[in-house]
Amino acid sequence: MYKVIVIRVCDKEFINYSYAIYNDEGTGILVDPAWETEKILSTVDEIQLDIKAILVTHEHIDHTNLAEYTSAYYDAPIYISAEAKQFSNINSKRLMFINDETPLLIDKLTIKPLLTPGHTKGCISYLINENLFSGDTLFIEGCGMCTDSSSSPHELFNSLRRLVDIIPLSTKIYPGHRYHAEVGQEFSYVLNNNIYLNITNEEDFIKFRMRNGQKGLMDFI
Ligand SMILES: [Fe+2]
């Protein structure tokens, strides 16, 4: 049985969702730890988790800000895609690179990395049991913007279509940000409420993703 703790973290205009996931034995993993050191450490402490890995979904600072710190604090490796590393400023001897979708076995926790480029070239989503940590690839109500130098709306379209094909409907979705819906909705809910998953023509998707006059990048809650 796996449990997920949602940790909402902020810094000025940034609002992010970091996560801890753990099993019955208290072996835990942090996903995208950022901004609020005390909040993250005390959450882990409260339930006495033994943190064994830090997973990073992509290189943007609001997802990597405390990766190095928590990695050193818990003496745990940081996993990031090789593509994302070249654009990140993480500098740690505990860095581990993900190049493909070979499952990671950390203690008894099995993690399935899914290469989901588009928001950036190095975006990874992590499927852990029935929980998908989707970073900025997939939000409950949308998907990441394609404004980075390594962004590709073509790749994002393919990544999202692939998630539609392979993710079971009961999987809970934990993104890096949210607008109005709570994180942790089942994928069936996301399919019914996310327009980006319902545009099946690539050209239409790219036009819509790249349209003018979109809301601000940091318009999260
Ligand atoms: Fe991002």
UniProtKB/TrEMBL annotation:
Domain of life: Bacteria
Residue ranges of the TM segments: none
Pfam families reported in the protein's UniProt record: Lactamase_B (PF00753)
A GO MF term: hydrolase activity
InterPro entries, sorted: MBL_Glyoxalase_II, Metallo-B-lactamas, RibonucZ/Hydroxyglut_hydro
PANTHER family: HYDROXYACYLGLUTATHIONE HYDROLASE GLOC
Name this polypeptide is given: MBL fold metallo-hydrolase
Species in which this protein is naturally found: Bacillus subtilis
Taxonomic lineage from the root: Bacteria, Bacillati, Bacillota, Bacilli, Bacillales
